[in-house]
Specification:
Blueprint lengths: L2 E8 L8 E8 L5 E10 L2 H7 L16 E8 L11 E4 L2 E3 L5 H4 L11 E2 L19 E5 L4 E2 L6 H4 L5 H11 L7 E5 L3 H12 L3 E6 L5 H7 L3 E4 L3 H5 L5 E6 L8 H5 L1 E9 L13 H6 L2 E4 L5 H14 L5 E4 L4 H9 L6 E5 L4
Parallel strand pairs: 10-11, 10-13, 11-12, 13-14, 14-15, 16-17
Antiparallel strand pairs: 1-2, 3-4, 3-8, 3-17, 4-5, 5-9, 6-7
Helix pairs in contact: 4-5
The protein binds NADP nicotinamide-adenine-dinucleotide phosphate (NAP) and zinc ion.
Amino acid sequence: MSTFTVKAYGAESITADLKEMNIERREVTSKDVEIEILYCGVCHSDLHTARNDWGGTIYPAVPGHEIIGRITKVGNEVAKFKVGDLAGVGCIVDSCGHCESCQHDLEQYCLNGFTGTYNGHDRHSGGHTFGGYSQKVVVDSHHVLKVPENLDPAAVAPLLCAGITTWSPLRHWKVGPNSKVAVVGLGGLGHMAIKLAKGLGAEVTLFSRTPGKTEDAKQLGADHVIISTDEEQMKSVKGKFDVIIDTVPYIHDVNPYVTTLNISGTHVLVGYLGGLEPILNTVPLILGRKSVAGSVIGGIAETQELLDFCGEHNIVSEIEMIKMEEINEAYERMLKSDVRYRFVIDMQTL
Ligand code: NAP
Ligand code: ZN
């Protein structure tokens, strides 16, 4: 496999700050496109991976899975794109293509394991994949998205993870004009969940620990804000919601939110990965036919559906643009929930 060298920004170890490094990209094969990266969003998963919060990080780790760029080369079998097109790459750069999930446009549940944009098993090189904190990326064109030209490309980047991760459960649980939706946590995923649920016509409530975010939440489209640490406020929404999208990244008590579900309602965890504590009480689940569920990103076709929907409804992320060298500081701010509401790296600064 012939390769070329590009500049990237990554972590050499669990304790190291991210810094400039060189990585290898493969030359385009017949099915690939090469993309010059213009913008890359900063997801909390980038931080979890750089610091090995989930175990399994392979170093050097180059994060970034909210990639927007211009196509600079196309393989000879690629019909979908041409040089100069604006394109997006999200969390998936490869999948087996033939299992039952892949056959049903559910690459995120590929039975043979999808290839994550970073820290994934690279089906071409045999090594691990490197993400979008880099100058260029080469991706199988099936996993590359068309980006609506009417939107600000920097603010589109977060749709590729924060957007699709919240869109997919909203669609799966059939959110529409008669739905009452709640979102837990106002960060990157949370602010997209509000905008998208609102875009689908739902009545939207935010649960937040941070009173200072109330005004922002309303501007983003939330009809109501509940401060989750205030018991009286929590009681006021007992039995209300059809769907809750829970974006909290760390262990937290899910039981108080289950109480706020309507009969047959579903609490969808998209943030925290791991065992729950305190233990989940099954009584309200059984007596109210309620569900606690999970969901991971979304398939390629569904991501295209989201981008097209956002193009039609003029929906983008609220972003703070940063330089590449500011990434370590951005991670520290993300840990303090001090992001309004997604950092996006201007990749020209690498
Ligand atoms: P983020 O921007 O840091 O936002 C998380 C929000 O959760 C914070 O703004 C804060 O909101 C709230 N929060 C943070 N720590 C909390 C705690 N200890 N207890 C309660 N609330 C807390 O993160 P993000 O990029 O949106 O990502 C959220 C999580 O989703 C991460 O764990 C990420 O890895 C995961 N993720 C999952 C998928 C998937 O496919 N399932 C995809 C992408 C990301 P308030 O200030 O409003 O309380
Ligand atoms: Zn992400």
